[in-house]
Specification:
The complex is a heterodimer. Chain A is mainly beta. In chain A, 0% of the residues lie in helices and 56% in strands. Chain A has no helices and 11 strands. In chain A, β7 and β8 form a beta hairpin. The radius of gyration of chain A is 14 Å and the shape is globular. By secondary structure, chain B is mostly beta strands. Helices cover 0% and strands 45% of the residues of chain B. In chain B, a hairpin with a 4-residue loop joins β5 and β6. Chain B is globular and about 40 Å long. Chains A and B meet through β5, β9 and β10 of A and β4 of B.
Chain lengths: 115, 111
């Protein structure tokens, strides 16, 4: 299995809702990532987990809460989002490699719309 | 991570070679050069990466300048399927392999 899966594909939520995005990989990768991508812009790194521990938080607002319950699963919990948080949320994973450099495998993303 | 500069867009004809340039004049000695591409409605896809020497794989070749301040991604025979945004990234490495995407080059391939 050489893919990263993300669910749901699309999500519409109100500003008072709580929802979660899910990402899964079964490639034995020990680094997992969340990116946010606005239309016609490059992906922006949000969080990095390394061996199930949060290692990078790119100053992301607390209304986004990541969780890595095990080495195959990565969640992004959403609460009290704003309309400007509408974007494509991409998950990626990478194997441990020489000097930490490894190909990142991206999922297809979850298209989030906040009303 | 070093800032990268790429042309906003380029055009190519099908079955011709494509050379996509990238400048990264502030690259540090430990920064890798990565290329990813993003096809429409998909997540980014790894293309190639290198540190100092030129690299080849089944998708492309990466030519790195001797001073490492620039690099060129070479697609040897463009196909319609290669139409995508190509991102050059200078950085990564370390325990977390952090990648900071630049604005990328939109490649159009004409039949």
């Amino acid at each position: 299995d050489t893919e990263v899966t993300q669910t749901p594909k699309h999500l519409v939520m109100g500003m008072t809702n709580k929802k979660s995005l899910k990402c899964e990989q079964h490639m034995g990768h020990r680094a997992m990532y969340w990116y946010k991508q606005k239309a016609k812009k490059p992906p922006e790194l949000m969080f990095v987990y390394s061996y199930e521990k949060l290692s990078i938080n790119e100053s992301v607002p607390s209304r986004f809460s990541p969780e890595c319950p095990n080495s195959s699963l990565l969640n992004l919990h959403l609460h009290a989002l704003q309309p400007e948080d509408s974007a494509l949320y991409l998950c990626a994973s990478s194997p441990p490699g020489l000097a930490g450099v490894g190909e990142q495998f991206f999922g297809p993303g979850t298209r989030l719309t906040v009303l | 991570d070093a800032k990268t500069t790429q042309p906003n867009s380029m055009e190519s004809n099908e079955e011709e070679p494509v050379h996509l340039p990238c400048n990264h004049s502030t690259i540090s000695g430990t920064d890798y050069i990565h290329w990813y591409r993003q096809l429409p409605s998909q997540g980014p896809e790894y293309v190639i990466h290198g540190l100092t020497s030129n690299v080849n794989n089944r998708m492309a070749s990466l030519a790195i300048a001797e001073d490492r301040k620039s690099s060129t991604l070479i697609l040897h025979r463009a196909t319609l399927r290669d139409a995508a945004v190509y991102y050059c990234i200078a950085g990564g490495g370390g325990a977390t392999n952090k990648l900071i995407f630049g604005t990328g080059t939109l490649l159009a391939v004409q039949p």
